[in-house]
Specification:
Blueprint: H1 3-15, E1 48-53, H2 59-67, E2 70-76, H3 80-96, E3 104-106, H4 110-113, E4 120-123, H5 127-139, E5 143-146, H6 154-167, E6 171-173, H7 184-193, E7 200-206, H8 227-231, E8 241-242, E9 248-249, H9 265-268, H10 270-282, E10 291-298, E11 303-304, E12 307-308, E13 319-326, E14 330-335, E15 346-351, E16 355-358, E17 363-365, H11 366-369, H12 380-384, H13 395-406, H14 414-433, E18 437-440, E19 445-446, H15 450-453
Parallel strand pairs: 1-2, 1-4, 2-3, 4-5, 5-6, 7-14
Antiparallel strand pairs: 7-15, 8-9, 10-13, 10-18, 11-12, 13-14, 15-16, 16-17, 18-19
GO molecular function: nucleotide binding
InterPro entries: Gfo/Idh/MocA-like_OxRdtase_N, Gfo/Idh/MocA_oxidrdct_glycsds, Gfo/Idh/MocA_OxRdtase_bact_C, NAD(P)-bd_dom_sf, TAT_signal
Domain Gfo/Idh/MocA-like oxidoreductase bacterial type C-terminal: 217-292, 394-465
Length: 468
């Protein structure tokens, strides 16, 4: 493609011309039976060019889903093995489409953002890298698909929302429950929207516990890994590894169990289920939490003043229970499991007219059974899906690509996700400090606790600051 043609296409997308009256969206977004796979009869000029930042295990799902709808030109990872595997997978996908295209490989994400031909980026890095890369990508004129949880702190979420508003970039967060999983969660939110359980009184959210590693010894950094850059904004520490395969480590998948890089299950699965719980509350204009009380917590290491006292093992909470109170005296219990209520993972909504439970495998309860005789209106899903219809396959990525072309916020926008992550981060602050925190949603400040307010942000290592 010539540079002139590419610039014309980018301008077309920027102006949102496809949103004009009478212009049809691509067939793979149109209607409930559409399949969001390889678009038919689409020219290369119509396809978005993708840069993939982070090509580890989770990218194994995100990357191929994006490649169904666009073409990857460059991959980036600080682990050379991951980068090479990503390159090969992308080039193989290009060949299968009948489009021979070399895919470049870089270690530094800034080289992806510098490329004028890149329309969108997928960010599938450890959590502590999400905000910095996403903010710089938006400022570089890229639309963004970023895996959850989007932020490490509440302050990062405020910065992302600010830049998204200023730049007008389209940004989809990878909370796929809003689009996929057999539309079980969409149906759950639609039930609330349609008043099928009356006014919400209580919600139980079970998100699973985290593992305990025991001591992990210092180990030699793998030759293919740029450990210093992997650490990014986090403190410079020794690489640790124990076991075989992925094993126990500070790196790759296991970063989830270190507060230096993530928030444990509270942000890993909370980003999914707490998001759905608050989406349900949003149907009744409830607003965010007003207080969060730690009922129970177990850490794999002793804590002092909110900080782990040992640095050689996982440190995120293994078991926990936080009671969050919302306006109208609505109680939301966030726990590792709710087995006494009949489920170990999922969300139980209780209202004045009934209750139901939803997770990735089922949607059950009286209001669900009543759908046989009183089904949801035909447009119930569209009403909560911002007037759009989820594609029957690859729906979350398809929604992102559709919104890039329409220049509108996708179903998992940064603003709703920031609000969900605010609850997750506040819950972790309450657990780590072992005290109730009171929250003012309007000012985005913890009330009457200066020490707790300091936890809304954190100092980044020099050279890796997250700035808006």
């Amino acid at each position: 493609m010539s540079q002139a043609n590419h610039s014309d296409r980018r301008q077309f997308l920027k102006t949102g011309a496809i949103a004009a009256a009478g212009v049809a969206v691509p067939y793979y977004f149109a209607g409930a039976n559409a399949q969001a796979d390889e678009p038919k009869n689409e020219s290369a000029n119509d396809r978005l060019t993708i840069g993939c930042i982070g090509t580890g295990s989770r990218w194994g799902a995100v990357g191929p889903n994006a490649m169904k709808l666009g073409d990857v030109a460059i991959v980036c990872d600080v682990d050379a093995n991951h980068a090479e595997q990503g390159r090969k997978r992308c080039e193989d996908a290009n060949k299968q489409k009948g489009r021979e295209r070399k895919v470049d490989v870089v270690e530094d994400y800034r080289k992806v953002l510098d490329r004028k031909d890149i329309d969108i980026v997928t960010i599938v890095t450890p959590d502590h890298w999400h905000s910095k890369i996403a903010i710089e990508a938006m400022k570089a004129g890229k639309d963004v698909y970023c895996e959850k949880p989007l932020t490490l702190t509440i302050d990062e979420g405020k910065k992302i929302c600010k830049v998204a508003k200023e730049t007008g970039r389209v940004f989809q967060v990878g909370t796929q429950q809003r689009s996929e999983m057999g539309q079980l969660f969409l149906k759950a939110v639609a039930l609330i929207n349609q008043g099928r359980i009356g006014d919400i009184q209580k919600i139980h959210v079970a998100i699973g516990g985290a593992p305990d590693s025991g001591p992990i010894p210092v180990a030699e950094v793998p030759k293919q890994l740029n450990w210093e850059m992997w650490l990014g904004q986090a403190p410079l520490v020794d690489y640790r590894f124990k076991g075989k395969g992925n094993g126990n480590s500070r790196c790759h998948y296991e970063f989830r169990w270190w507060y230096e890089y993530s928030g444990g299950k509270m942000t890993d699965w909370g980003a999914h289920h707490i998001d759905i719980a608050q989406w349900g509350l949003d149907q009744q204009n409830v607003g965010g939490p007003v207080s969060l009380e730690p009922i129970m917590v177990q850490f794999p290491t002793p804590f002092q003043d909110g900080m782990p006292t040992q640095d050689d093992r996982y440190n995120t909470a293994t078991k926990f229970h936080v009671r969050a109170m919302y306006p109208g005296d609505i109680e939301v219990n966030i726990r590792d499991e709710c087995n006494e209520l009949g489920f170990g993972n999922g969300i139980l909504f209780e209202g004045t007219k009934g209750r139901f439970m939803v997770n990735r495998g089922k949607l059950v309860g009286g209001p669900v059974e009543e759908l046989k005789d009183n089904p949801l209106p035909a447009d119930a899903i569209q009403k909560i899906y911002k007037g759009m219809t989820p594609a029957s396959g690859n729906a979350h990525m398809a929604n992102f690509f559709e919104c890039v072309k329409l220049r509108k916020d996708p179903i998992s926008d940064v603003y709703s996700h920031h609000r969900a992550m605010t609850t997750c981060h506040l819950a972790n602050i309450a657990l780590r400090l072992d005290r109730t925190v009171k929250w003012d949603e309007k000012s985005e400040q913890i009330v009457g606790d200066d020490d707790a307010n300091r936890w809304l942000s954190r100092e980044a290592r020099k050279g890796y600051e997250v700035t808006a």
